[in-house]
Design brief:
Layout: H1 9-15, E1 19-20, H2 21-24, E2 26-31, H3 45-64, E3 68-73, E4 87-97, E5 101-111, E6 118-130, E7 144-145, H4 149-174
Parallel strand pairs: 1-7
Antiparallel strand pairs: 2-4, 3-6, 4-5, 5-6
The protein binds coenzyme A.
Amino acid sequence: MTQPPPQTRNDLDRRVPGRRVRDSASETTELVLPQHANVHGSVLGGTVMHWIDLTAALVANRHSRRPVVTAAIDEMSFLAPIRIGEVAMLKGRITLADRSSMEIRVDVESENLLTGERRHTSTAFVTFVALDPVTGRPAPVPPLVLETDEERAEHARAVERRRLRLERRVALKDS
Ligand SMILES: CC(C)(COP(=O)(O)OP(=O)(O)OC[C@H]1O[C@@H](n2cnc3c(N)ncnc32)[C@H](O)[C@@H]1OP(=O)(O)O)[C@@H](O)C(=O)NCCC(=O)NCCS
């Protein structure tokens, strides 16, 4: 028996209603406590990455309404420390939806609760894959509806990031 051809993004776009960026955008806030900190009194990089992963997962779940797994986290930098007693604010939004994968951008800002000063401390791009709850295999996600010029520009950059990411994936598999 011949297998049906794999569904393309265009096939899916014709059948599934799209979701807007704002339908899944999510924000989480974390107060930095001593148990989150390193010996210098600022939050551990791994803890920030955990919060980024969770914020991005929320966005991916809301967009796909499916179980999701993290497939990749792009290189990320820590531009400034977030100190004990400060708040970390994480804002996540979807930038690209392909067949089963989604790219989520998470921006992290610190807020000093005494002065109100806010600083951009990190930006990360996280790829999630939606899974079929029964088979556990990658499953289609709704297309992304882009409403603003900013969303369209971010999406164009996301397409290029995806291309580079998939090249790296092939290189990693071959090594
Ligand atoms: C992510 C995972 C489900 C992909 O499964 P797979 O059998 O390799 O499936 P495919 O090759 O068909 O890829 C499925 C999708 O994932 C994307 N993908 C897979 N690995 C990727 C990577 N490293 N970077 C970016 N996208 C990736 C593919 O491009 C494809 O996207 P598309 O459907 O939108 O075109 C599988 O590798 C996995 O389960 N990894 C472990 C996930 C995990 O444990 N995460 C940490 C805990 S949540």
